[in-house]
Specification:
- 70% of the residues lie in helices and 2% in strands.
- Helix 1 packs across helix 6 (113-137), helix 4 (49-71) runs antiparallel to helix 5 (79-107) and helix 5 (79-107) packs antiparallel against helix 6.
- It is built from 7 helices and 2 strands; from the N terminus they run αααααααββ.
- The protein has 182 residues and is mainly alpha-helical.
Length: 182
């Protein structure tokens, strides 16, 4: 059965543009904050792939919360469905960036700032299309929603922990400063 208030393709394009602009601005927030630790927990602190995944997660998480508050009163989408759709897209967006980036750099040896930048809107768009489908057609139960909340909390925690103490793996390496983490 279809749920009302799922996102149209036009709205997906609009939300993709908005999220991409916010993500682009957040790229510089840590430096502009005077390298404030609290700001760095939620925004990229260096040029590693891992740190750039933060602006695929945190603005999107806030966006999901705000959209729920806006749509809750006028939509027939149950909270469980909303939570599972959000969790799915919060995994899909960063994963799309990581998989795409490592595909064209590792597999094809392409290094392009333009392609790196384009990954942001592309990943948001793909994640929003997937989430819209979930919003429209899925009916998850409360247990799936609870697992989704736990998953979101785990991802949030991992982003913070790995900012403070990143493993010495390539995804965490900042080639510009030749360091890991803060």
């Amino acid at each position: 059965m279809k749920n009302k208030c799922a996102f149209t393709i036009l709205k997906i394009f609009g939300h993709t543009l908005t999220l991409s602009i916010v993500a682009s601005a957040l790229h510089f927030v840590y430096a502009f904050s005077g390298e404030n630790l609290f700001i760095g927990l939620f925004n990229p602190v260096n040029e590693s792939v891992w740190e750039h995944l933060k602006f695929m997660f945190f603005p999107f998480l806030i966006w999901w919360i705000v959209m729920y508050l806006i749509k809750n009163k006028k939509c027939t989408i149950p909270l469980n469905t909303w939570i599972v759709s959000a969790a799915f897209s919060l995994v899909a967006a960063p994963m799309t960036v990581a998989l795409s980036f490592y595909s064209y750099t590792g597999a094809f040896g392409i290094h392009s700032l333009l392609m790196d930048i384009f990954l942001v809107p592309l990943s948001y768009f793909i994640a929003l299309c997937m989430a819209s489908h979930f919003l429209e057609y899925s009916r998850p139960n409360k247990w799936v929603a609870m697992i989704s909340v736990a998953g979101i909390a785990a991802i949030l925690t991992i982003f913070i922990l790995f900012t403070l103490n990143p493993p010495h793996l390539p995804v965490f390496y900042d080639a510009v400063t030749q360091t890991y983490g803060i």
